[in-house]
Amino acid sequence: MWDGDVHHANYYYGHAHVLARYCELPQPLHPPRMRGYLQHGWNIGDGLAPGVPFVAGSKLFVWSEETRRRAWSQGRREVIVTGAPFAYLVALEPEPPAAGREGTIFYPFHGWEGQLVNGDHHRMIDELRSVEDGPITICLYWNEYRSKPVRRAYEKAGFRVICHGYRGFWWRDHDRGFLVRQLAELRRHRRVVSNRLCSAIWYGLLAGCAAAVYGDPMTLENDDQTFGGEPRLRRQWPEVYGHRTDTAACRELARRELGADVLMSPAELRTHFGWEGDAR
To answer: Which superkingdom, per the lineage (predicted)?
Structure first.
């Protein structure tokens, strides 16, 4: 069981850093401790990763009303909709009016320290070439970026290959610039694509990209199917699947899934996180 006041996942991807900046706090190496668990990635469950032990009574800060309702159905009662950290970053950094966009950024479905992904990247490369116009950027998660076979497959195909950085783990190497770099990359591209619906698709839509999900969804070792897995993704969000999608409809879904229309004021967030005494 973990203590909701000090959970290291609150700092993944620089989430707490973005929120501290929005709350107008000083910018030390680590923001103040957050009194609760912050949802650290888009998911189709209750905001927690499957199997995460939860201290009864701890607050759970989730991205959307849909997630709050799912958490309620799982017996969570201290659930507060704050919106996604990425949505706050977009609010903090409006896109320059003359920004130019070209090509596609592709996010392959990825694993993490405890689970690897199995799939045919060469088949995915062939499909990308047949569908996408203009230059293609491949953004690999750090696991896959360090994997020579995966990285080299995309490099040999002639694609630009990047990595936004390391997520952080157990209070080490949290990269406060992760989301900032991701937003900048998304704003360079006209389209964001993945082979499985994920946070990056919603982020790209909110950042002004068109989006599509297609190709081999690949498989995760010992994947937890508690909330329905890939089949449920296709059933519940069919609008984002296919080589071409309705951008307006998808963007509206992204605003809902990221809570972009219900963002709190800095004072409200400081109160919920227990940061009242840390403001400038």
So the answer is: Bacteria
